[in-house]
């Protein structure tokens, strides 16, 4: 079924079949060239005042309300507490088109998509899962433990003082079936230590099943200072990426912006 908005655009532009041409009849490389030409034409018509107006009015472009030094401090604390078997990565700002919707079932409407066949990272655990799959494809005998701090962006509408981008500290562990309890204990213990060290608070643990259409196994969440700060659980992403039902992947993440607000109370 064609989206009513698409039907209206085709009707008002008097270009029947425009959507079908763009989605199925034009090769991907030609579509990128076409869209780049469109953007170049539109940008050529912009004045500096237009850019400033967009900067002021678009929440996606606005700075966060937290001092970067405070977030950097929390990030350093997290890395200092990271278990020695975890490798930290500095992720690219973008990832392959479909990373969040194909793996994590997040609607593509909530993702900032680029013309070049990529998307802005909306959840670093999706990207860490891809890297885990690359490494597990080379060696199924060695578990993979990765961590990353990354400022994610989602186009979901937010109300001030929240902004659509936020810094996450994410963990991702990949291995074979049989070690699930140990992985869960390690992830949970790390975030409990981080919350205690950064905010001086004892986290409340919630092990009730969460987002059953998203997770495929045990889950957990941690809250402190009246806010949920951590969520994690097993997903089937490496099973699907590697076509191997014995693969296991545990993801978890903490919102550093939220932790900063809790720690400052």
The SS-based structural class is alpha+beta
Question: How many discrete structural domains?
Answer: 2
What general form does the structure show?
A: globular
Strand content: 15-25%
Q: What spatial order of strands do you see in the largest sheet?
A: 1-4-5-9-8-7-6
Q: DSSP helix count?
A: 10
Rounded mean pLDDT is 93
Radius of gyration over all CA atoms, rounded: 21 Å
The CATH topology label of the largest domain is BirA Bifunctional Protein, domain 2
Number of strands: 9
Major β-sheet profile: 7 strands, mixed
Unreliable runs, pLDDT <50, ≥5 residues?
A: none
The CATH homologous superfamily of the largest domain is called: Bira Bifunctional Protein, Domain 2
Order of helices and strands: HHHHHEEHEHEEHEEEHEH
Report the helical percentage. 40-55%
Give the CATH class of the largest domain.
Alpha Beta
Give the distance, in angstroms, between the N- and C-terminal Cα atoms.
50 Å
CATH-scheme architecture of the largest domain: 2-Layer Sandwich
Features:
9 strands, 2 domains, 10 helices, 265 residues, alpha+beta
Commentary on this structure:
- This protein has helices spanning 4-13, 18-25, 28-44, 48-57, 68-81, 99-104, 124-138, 180-199, 237-242, 256-263, and strands at 87-88, 94-96, 118-120, 144-153, 165-176, 204-206, 219-224, 227-235, 247-255.
- It has 265 residues and is of the alpha+beta class.
- It folds into 2 domains: 4-45, no CATH class; 64-263, Bira Bifunctional Protein, Domain 2 (BirA Bifunctional Protein, domain 2, 2-Layer Sandwich), CATH 3.30.930.
- The protein has a 7-stranded mixed beta sheet, with helices on both faces. Strands 2-3 form a two-stranded antiparallel ribbon.
- The protein is globular.
- It starts with a helix and ends with a helix.
